[in-house]
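Duplicate of #3305? Posting structure anyway:
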């Protein structure tokens, strides 16, 4: 039974990983074989040895992953796919909600293949330089045994670093590594959360990264023979010296014994078969080489074009006028901004990117919409936790002596979005379980409001029949800004005869003092909760999921229950695991997590 639900919750993700990793392996093997076995690269292999095939195999995988890495961050494209894929299974659609995770996987693959590609080319540059001095038993250097122009190093006396930083691949490769290093290191979670500006600005080095990547192979250091052909089988041939193509294996064997690659007996045998015609046939002038040309642009031109369209759409949309209609200061340093924009349409649970140009012109921050689609405005709740959020609150007149400002005094705000999330799918289930931890409750503000409005509309029929709402907070102050909404929803639902539609479970994990505990004890018999004001009482301690999930399965047999979570990763892993553990053939818990 667990295995069945493991496939439902994790099957699409592992299928993607299998196909993606399989393609990486297939590309590497294919290009490795091409450059390790292909006759057109025979001479180049003699010059660079096995590092040639390793460099080209890793280059193909790099091109493939650089082609993919931009797709997961095309948010409009993903939102469009989510909207057009409603007829597909929910398990497939949930894969689209893991776009940031997939982006990280691909980025790590780029780092891995870059390390292999760089290491192999370090060896190749060394071979380019030393081939002018390494000699065989007859005192011949490797270069003299190969076609002219195969080695980009013009002569002896050059250092590896000098050659590396005077070639286009060497210079652009260095730029690519620096950009990649800065983008990856600034994406570490502790840096991203503590110094968001560093993450934001360094991530835009991707522009330089792709420019350097496209021109990386333009010089064409990797050259192949253009006139290769095996010798005809009817030997000897009278006019072999006039044969326009050349067999590199035969000629290399004839020209020299290079580090015992060919023994003297094989060389003499060739002479006996072909006689005096072989020297003319194997003259170096017959071995013609040419660069293969830049290939990366063929891989990345489509995703770059799509990403450019994505950014143009976002730029145009973000420049639409936004009017701030109301600013509300809530407890716990939470600021609510209500806005309007012409043509703005959003679904419950979606999010937007917000920018305040006079504070940070290039910074966009994601915020979940806390308003419902039924309201005539859209809103976000911003908690003052850092430099940027504190400046936004102060600029809106919160926490200052000037007090609240008029609409025309409000700062100019740019909005990009809305963008779809998995929370939209809660209305596609008969039973939904919404779990928010701390400030992670914000996506469910919009959903609970929408449920409220739809329940009041007699012309609206919802598939969603029951919502279990869990809010887990570490301290009492975290409840303050949201408790009025919860109390209002509960009251309206009860007055409308839908009191059982939403079942609240508020968990306070810590943060109560002796005075609070005394008030709780004295008002234990009261109808409403002393902290939240709800009819359903606050639970002190963490939820016991091993009791909650079986109870929900018992109440709703034969139904797929959608579990929607927004909060910290440790709790997400726990819920994901419990969804798999407590699913049965009759009742399955389908896990969904918010990602920004």
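Output from current build:
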């Amino acid at each position: 039974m667990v295995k069945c639900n493991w496939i439902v919750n994790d099957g699409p993700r592992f299928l993607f990983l299998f196909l993606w990793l399989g393609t990486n392996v297939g590309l590497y093997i294919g290009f490795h074989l091409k450059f390790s076995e292909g006759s057109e690269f025979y001479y180049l292999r003699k010059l660079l040895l096995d590092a040639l095939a390793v460099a080209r195999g890793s280059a193909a995988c790099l091109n493939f992953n650089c082609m993919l890495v931009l797709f997961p961050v095309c948010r409009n494209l993903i939102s469009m796919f989510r909207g057009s894929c409603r007829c597909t299974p929910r398990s497939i659609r949930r894969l689209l909600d893991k776009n940031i995770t997939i982006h990280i996987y691909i980025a790590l693959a780029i780092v891995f293949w870059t390390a292999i590609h760089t290491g192999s080319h370090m060896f190749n540059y060394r071979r380019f330089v030393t081939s002018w001095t390494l000699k065989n038993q007859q005192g011949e250097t490797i270069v003299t045994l190969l076609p002219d122009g195969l080695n980009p190093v013009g002569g002896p006396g050059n250092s590896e670093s000098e050659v590396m930083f005077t070639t286009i691949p060497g210079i652009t490769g260095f730029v690519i590594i620096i950009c990649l290093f800065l983008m990856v290191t600034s994406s570490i979670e502790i840096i991203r959360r503590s110094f968001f500006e560093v993450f934001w600005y360094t991530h835009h080095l991707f522009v330089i990264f792709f420019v350097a990547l496209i021109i990386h192979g333009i010089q064409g250091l990797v050259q192949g023979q253009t006139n290769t052909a095996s010798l005809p089988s009817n030997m000897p041939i009278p006019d072999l010296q006039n044969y326009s193509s050349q067999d590199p294996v035969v000629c290399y064997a004839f020209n020299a014994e290079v580090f015992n690659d060919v023994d003297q007996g094989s060389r003499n045998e060739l002479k006996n078969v072909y006689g005096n015609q072989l020297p003319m046939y194997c003259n170096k002038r017959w071995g013609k080489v040419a660069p293969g040309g830049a290939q990366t642009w063929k891989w990345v031109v489509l995703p770059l074009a799509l990403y450019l369209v994505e950014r143009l759409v976002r730029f145009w949309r973000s420049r639409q006028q936004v009017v701030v209609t109301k600013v509300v200061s809530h407890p716990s340093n939470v600021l609510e901004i209500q806005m309007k924009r012409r043509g703005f349409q959003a679904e419950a649970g979606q999010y937007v990117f917000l920018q305040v140009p006079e504070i940070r012109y290039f910074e966009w921050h994601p915020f979940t919409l806390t308003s419902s689609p039924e309201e005539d405005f859209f809103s976000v709740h911003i908690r003052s936790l850092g430099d940027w959020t504190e400046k936004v609150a102060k600029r809106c007149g919160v926490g200052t002596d000037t007090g609240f400002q008029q609409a025309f005094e409000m700062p100019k705000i740019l909005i990009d979005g809305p963008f779809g999330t998995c929370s939209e799918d809660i209305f596609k289930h008969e039973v939904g379980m919404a779990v928010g931890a701390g400030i992670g409750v914000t996506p469910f503000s919009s959903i609970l409001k929408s449920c409220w409005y739809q329940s009041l509309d007699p012309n609206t029929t919802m598939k969603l029949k029951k919502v279990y709402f869990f809010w887990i907070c570490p301290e009492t102050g975290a409840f303050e800004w949201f408790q009025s909404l919860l109390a209002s929803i509960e009251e309206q639902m009860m007055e409308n005869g839908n009191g059982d539609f939403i079942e609240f479970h508020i968990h306070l994990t810590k943060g109560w003092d002796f005075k609070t505990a005394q008030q709780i004890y004295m008002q234990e018999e009261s109808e409403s909760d002393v902290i939240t004001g709800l009819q359903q009482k606050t639970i002190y301690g963490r939820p016991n999921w091993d009791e909650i999930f079986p109870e929900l399965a018992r109440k709703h047999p034969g139904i797929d229950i959608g579990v929607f979570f927004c909060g910290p990763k440790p709790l997400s892993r726990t819920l994901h695991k419990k969804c798999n553990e407590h699913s049965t053939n009759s009742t399955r818990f389908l896990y969904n997590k918010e990602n920004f």
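Confirmed duplicate; merging threads. Residues 233-243, 257-262 have pLDDT under 50 and may be disordered. The radius of gyration is 33 Å.
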